[in-house]
Amino acid sequence: MDFDVLDYISKDEKPHIPTNQQNEEILFKRSTPIIDHNIDTVSSSTENTYDTRCQVVPLQLLDLPPVKTMPYFVIFTILKLLKPSVQLNFSHTQSSQDTDNTTGLPNLLETYFYDHNEEEKKNITNLIDITMLWFKKNWNFIFNLASINIEYKQKFVNKIRSLLANNSKASLLSYYTNIIAFCENSLDTEMASSMDLQTVTVTKEHILRECSLRIAENCGRTAQPSTSRFFQLDNMCKRIELFEPGLTNDNLGFKTWGASLKLSQIICNYVFPTDYLYSKNNFNCANDANKNYKILELGAGTGLVGISFICKNMLDTETKNTYAANGIDVYLTDLPEITENLWRNVKLNYKMDDQRNSTNNKVIVDVLDWTDPSAFIKANRITQFDVILIADPIYSPQHPYLIVNMMKTFLRKPRSDGDNTGIKGGVVLLEIPVRDKYEKERQLLWDLLDQNGLQIIHQNVETGVDDFGPTKYIFSKIAWKGNM
Question: Name one GO cellular component term (predicted).
């Protein structure tokens, strides 16, 4: 799609707007956030007018000042505030802070700038202050800012962010390219706004970098920069945070896929170990009360499935396992280029203090090459796992063979101790998407399971979503034949 970078430059604006050179002379000095202590003197009619315009009238990009008339710090602040909202379960969710004006500005900044450190958040607050002052002096008819207190900051931020909902993606992209064109033609390299003991300096490079991020975020998942996303699952109190590096074609493990979310929800619905390892006809697992359970995730990627298991059964005080007296060892595995980010995500959700405070539970992130697992076996001295977790593992013709081989290698074999309780061996929880391109590979997988002494003891088709839209998924619970 073609965008005209001049779409948002008006030729003749009636309101007088100072030029960038004039705006360089506007210095806002302070050492604390700007608070108008005379807010009580603002007339009710002025405040009502503000509420009417800021809460009822939708803000359009054309309502903003022409880009060429705004100082760099104003452009930069607008770009910062147009950062997409937090993604929750593959959807951009509108936080209550977008509409609840009783919520303080610090909480709102925490919502949208969770990936910034405290100093960066402080700078953003400063930029919002001086940007509001600039609008109050030069372009106040769309905001009617009577003061710069917390309440008005909240409304100002919400008003700017409403541009995301009130304008099409094409319009936003055109606006961003307009800003880039302006910066490329501008002779100014930087603009500073001085305050007591500190100076906020916004350069052309700052604007171009922020603008590039906004454009990439609107160009599909494969073009998006590194980001964090969040997942909230039923039957689990903790919200999971995952960091995703920029996606490349040869590192698909850097993205969280829809099958992981579906399998994670099943994990949160299950009670461990009864729903995993014991049949409905005999769910008394007292004989295994002193067992140390071993859990393996194959191809963990960003780690959602394994982390969900950890949070549900090892961390959540309301739902964590009460049967495994000798603890649970969870191994999250993938290829070498994936495990660094995988370990990062584990640490985001499972603090090492949790492991040090528990002598029974362990979380291990390690490399496991499906074509040659010998290094993993040697390093960990283990080949028998009670539960194997696999999500979306088929994206080449060789994968069905490799997956079944991993099951044969690592799935705990049936016991021969005469115990008739439940399943006499480990189980595999497998979630795969129904992709037309890999129909033959899916059928090959089912055939290989049967040929290698494995059976599907439960299977169902369900619908879910990810970044690429709705998809059907097949959930399968797999065990050794004759183990029910």
Answer: cytosol
Between 52 and 185, the more confident residue is 185
Query: Residue 239 in contact with residue 232, Cβ under 8 Å?
Result: yes
Residue pair 479/454 in contact (Cβ under 8 Å)? The answer is yes
Question: Rounded to the nearest 10 degrees, how much is the dihedral formed by the CA atoms of 445, 446, 448, 453?
Answer: 140
Torsion angle defined by CA atoms of residues 414, 416, 418 and 423, in that order, rounded to the nearest 10 degrees: 0
| CA–CA distance, 444 with 401 (Å, rounded to integer) | 8
Query: What are residue 204's phi and psi, to 5 degrees?
Result: -60, -35
Q: How confident is the model at residue 343 (pLDDT cuts 50, 70, 90)?
A: very high
State how far the alpha carbon of 186 is from the alpha carbons of 6, 25, 66, 204, in Å: 14, 18, 14, 9
Q: Phi/psi class of residue 27: alpha, beta or left (left: φ > 0; alpha: ψ in -120 to 50)?
A: beta
Whether 253 and 150 share a structural domain: no
Segment 448-483, tens digit of pLDDT: 999 999 999 999 999 998 877 889 999 999 999 976
Residue 157 and residue 285 in one domain = no
Report yes or no on 46 lying in a domain: yes
**153/277 same-domain check:** no
pLDDT above 50 for 372: yes
3-state helix, strand, coil in the chain (%, to 5): 45, 20, 40
Contact 426, 385 (CB under 8 A): yes
* 271 and 410 assigned to the same domain: yes
Given 190, 219, 248, which residue is the final one in a domain?
A: 219
pLDDT tens, residue by residue, 192-224 = 554 433 456 788 899 999 999 899 887 766 666
Residues 197, 66: one domain? Answer: yes
CB 423 within 8 A of CB 473: no
Task: Report the run of H or E that residue 105 belongs to, with start and end.
Answer: helix 105-112
Which residue segment(s) compose the domain that 149 sits in?
A: 20-219
Domain count across the chain: 2
In a domain, 4, yes or no: no
Q: How confident is the model at residue 334 (pLDDT cuts 50, 70, 90)?
A: very high
pLDDT digits (tens, 9 = 90+) for 133-144: 999 899 888 777
Domain boundary among 186, 219, 252: 219
User: What pLDDT is recorded for position 181?
Assistant: 93
| Whether residues 277 and 315 fall in one domain | yes
Who wins on pLDDT, 84 or 316?
A: 84
